[in-house]
Amino acid sequence: MLILKLTNITKEYNSRVILNDINLSCKNCEMIAIKGKSGVGKSTLLNIMAGLERATSGEYYYNEILMNDKSINSLSKFRQANVGYISQHSPMIPELTVLENICVPVWFEKDEEKKKEYMQQIESLSMLFEINNLLDKKINALSGGEIQRAGIIRSILKKPQLIIADEPTAALDDETALMILTHFNFLKSEGAIIIVVTHNDIVSKHCDKTYQLSKEGLLLIS
To answer: Where does the ABC transporter domain lie (predicted)?
Structure first.
């Protein structure tokens, strides 16, 4: 079953074409990589799929629901319920500890059982990603790679169906990147769709499909 489908997506800023006639479909249990030179619109494409930006033309369907005409409030609810967004530089609140930053997505969770489940998830993932001894530290005490791992945990904490990742391993060494990719494959096996923008061949080799984005469009290359 196709979960995410882009048809003839175009994005323009001030008459400048950023994305041109993009077509893409993804289903459950699939991880895809998107490559491309700087400035071809990779982050813009991710933002459209995450509901952070609107396409100028074309259609975006998620679970057979047309997303183009959704209100800002509806798109926000869509992200909260379905999307885990891993940015290239995970934004953090410097006044808070690592644990407090990771907990941001569940600040307003009222279900106590879910809260316990999320805390168990944090404990498990922080041990897996080897930052369990840093949870009580302030963010400014961490390295870039440690902050990136904390950001990844925050983004996947609620087990989203759609994981959007913009260069998720850019700040990581190869060993840690492989650890993250192994967990991504586990999440994929659990039913997630994972879309990764990357320049790293190690990442693309772990994906089911790799696409090349250019000014001409999106081309399947492997």
So the answer is: 4-221
